[in-house]
């Protein structure tokens, strides 16, 4: 599965961030690339069955602390 | 790209489907037992002033969306900081709704399929429609609303033989306390969630249309949710409704017309998916629009694919299990959502009114 993820993201990078660069939208390219990196990291971690910390316990903790 | 404008009818359809989105799956929050429908009506009434505040913002800032308003009122830095909070809120809300669907399919429909598969399919569909633009979303919403209303109406009619009126008695058995507690929770989930639509206010046609669109949407959606809630109570009874994760699905599964028309819950579940599709799409659009405004991008479309994928992945690890999801939705969310739905919009509205008065005074002084 991780290999498929890498292959799929190679295609995504070619079409999405690189496409923006070719159109000359540099700012859009930088933001899209940053988000692509986050998205790829999450997808890779999920495919490797790594435990990703969820924001829910933090929100629950803060809400319980306040009320 | 030209400016996207969608007619009031289509905007109302989006608002209705957005509000009924998760409630069709999850039902309304319930400590009030067989009086939950009273809590829903009170919640609808409580949501109206908030909706009027949201609509007033559209009058004060015509042609601007939530992010433009925040930046113009609170300044470039603080406004952008608040915009980031709303980007998080819409991304998180979209992920929560996707997870509702994931848990639904895992629990009752596609029990052997990994949860991420149906969530990814819906997520990709939302990415597609948001990339196509709000006009496409509006037209889809109008068609899907008609379909949803037709299915809900037919299912309500077919459920009539299963109604047991004694489930509704005694009314207000546990008093007004739980009813008001439920009403408070129901304002934040689902009615005031429509604050997300502020992020798409630029698509509304003219100055005064927001009040009409939002009020109509909330009233129709509230009526649908109340109707479904009463049906669930009449078919299942308050004890069973409160013990189920997806009461509507079970209530529809009880339909049996002459041993011929049975087990139609699978077909009725299509309605859940249509409402959810619109809700997730609007959340995705508003979060992408926020990113575009904060980082001054040429188009929100540049980040739709990545934000959509992040939303799907987030929905996969946001909760450990269905119990955590239920606990968050009914106990934590109503407090977590308050700043986004009430405090920040009210502060924005108050500041905007002061700014509008000041500028009108200045204009008068310059005329004299």
UniProtKB/TrEMBL annotation, chain A:
* Identification of the protein by name: Uncharacterized protein
TM helices/strands, residue ranges = 6-21, 28-50
What is the organism of origin for this protein?
A: Paenibacillus auburnensis
User: Which keywords, in A-to-Z order, does the entry hold?
Assistant: Membrane, Transmembrane, Transmembrane helix
Automatic annotation (TrEMBL), chain B:
Q: Does the keyword rRNA-binding apply?
A: no
Listed InterPro entries:
Spore_GerAB
Cellular localisation: Membrane
Q: What is its main location?
A: membrane
At the top level, the lineage of the source is Bacteria
Keywords, ordered alphabetically: Germination, Membrane, Transmembrane, Transmembrane helix, Transport
Topology term for the membrane: Multi-pass membrane protein
Q: Which Pfam families match?
A: Spore_permease
The UniProt transmembrane annotation reads 12-30, 36-57, 69-89, 109-131, 143-160, 180-201, 213-234, 268-288, 300-320, 332-352
Annotated family? Belongs to the amino acid-polyamine-organocation (APC) superfamily. Spore germination protein (SGP) (TC 2.A.3.9) family.
Provide the protein name.
Spore germination protein YndE
């Amino acid at each position: 599965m991780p290999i498929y993820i890498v292959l799929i993201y190679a295609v995504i990078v070619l079409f999405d961030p690189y496409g923006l660069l070719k159109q000359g939208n540099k700012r859009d390219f930088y933001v899209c690339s940053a988000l692509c990196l986050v998205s790829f990291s999450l997808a890779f971690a999920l495919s490797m069955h790594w435990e990703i910390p969820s924001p829910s316990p933090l929100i629950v903790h803060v809400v319980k602390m306040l009320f | 790209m030209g400016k996207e404008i969608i007619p009031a009818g289509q905007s109302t359809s989006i608002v209705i489907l957005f509000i009924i989105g998760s409630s069709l799956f999850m039902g309304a929050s319930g400590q009030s037992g067989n009086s939950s429908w009273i809590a829903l009506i009170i919640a609808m009434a409580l949501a109206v002033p908030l909706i009027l505040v949201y609509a007033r913002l559209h009058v004060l800032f015509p042609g601007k969306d939530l992010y433009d308003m925040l930046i113009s009122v609170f300044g470039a830095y603080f406004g952008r900081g608040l915009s980031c909070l709303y980007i998080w809120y819409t991304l998180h809300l979209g992920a929560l709704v996707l997870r509702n669907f994931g848990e639904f399919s895992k629990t009752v429909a596609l029990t052997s399929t990994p949860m991420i598969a149906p969530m990814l399919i819906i997520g990709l569909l939302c990415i597609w429609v948001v990339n196509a633009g709000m006009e496409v979303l509006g037209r889809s919403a109008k068609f899907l609303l008609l379909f949803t209303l037709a299915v809900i109406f037919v299912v309500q009619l077919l459920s009539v033989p299963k109604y047991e009126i004694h489930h509704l008695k005694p009314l207000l058995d546990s008093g007004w306390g739980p009813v008001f507690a439920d009403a408070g929770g129901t304002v934040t989930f689902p009615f005031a969630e429509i604050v997300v639509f502020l992020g798409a206010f630029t698509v509304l046609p003219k100055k005064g249309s927001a009040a009409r669109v939002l009020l109509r949407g909330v009233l129709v959606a509230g009526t649908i949710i109340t109707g479904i809630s009463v049906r669930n109570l009449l078919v299942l009874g308050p004890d069973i409704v409160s013990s189920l994760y997806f009461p509507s699905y079970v209530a529809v599964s009880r339909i049996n017309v002459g041993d011929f028309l049975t087990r139609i819950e699978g077909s009725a579940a299509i309605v859940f998916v249509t409402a959810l599709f619109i809700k997730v799409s609007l959340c995705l659009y508003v979060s992408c629009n926020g990113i575009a405004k904060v980082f001054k991008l040429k188009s929100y479309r540049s980040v739709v694919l990545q934000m959509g994928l992040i939303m799907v992945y987030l929905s996969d690890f946001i909760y450990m299990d269905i119990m955590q999801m239920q606990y968050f939705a009914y106990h934590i969310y109503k407090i977590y959502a308050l700043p986004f739905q009430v405090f920040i919009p009210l502060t924005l509205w108050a500041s905007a009114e002061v700014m509008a008065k000041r500028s009108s005074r200045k204009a008068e002084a310059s005329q004299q």
